Amino acid sequence: MSKTRPAYAPHSLRTSTWGDADLTLKETDSGEVVLISTAFTGTNNRTATLPSAKKGLYFKFFWTVADGTGNAYRAIKTAATSELIKGTVFVYDINTADQSNDIVANQLNGSSHDEIRINDDIQKGSFVELICDGSHWYTADSQIFTNETGADAVTES
């Protein structure tokens, strides 16, 4: 008699969108791919706030459109000042202009939430993946394509 294997549910990718507004993520959103599907314009900065640190939380931010003009930025920030974002964000320049401030690892005034600011002129296909160890957030992978930034990696220790 042959054994039958259990049927597995096909993989279903969970997604949410981050348009031209701020976004607050919850613990129950973990595992989602956050699609940046609406470009923002002008000088209105947009912020995605991660949930409080808990081991195993994971998010991927993926640009499906070219994003940003002017001096605006998207910020991905932690929920608490004691939580850091650690790792490297790789930036790929598609021309020769040097605007190395287009990716900024930041802790505002040394007392606010840690954040990664991804400034204007981000190209579709860019992404940042973050995973949490229960205390801090780490960049698991990243590729930011821009037509304005320097081709350097920016590291947050």
Topology (SSEs and partners):
Blueprint: E1 15-17, E2 23-24, E3 33-36, E4 46-49, E5 58-63, E6 73-77, E7 85-93, E8 103-107, E9 114-119, E10 127-132, E11 137-146, E12 153-156
Structure, described:
By secondary structure, this protein is mostly beta strands. Helices cover 0% and strands 41% of the residues. It has no helices and twelve strands. The protein has strands at residues 15-17, 23-24, 33-36, 46-49, 58-63, 73-77, 85-93, 103-107, 114-119, 127-132, 137-146, 153-156. Residues 108-112 and 149-157 have low confidence and may be disordered.
In a few lines, what is going on in this structure?
It is built from no helices and twelve strands.
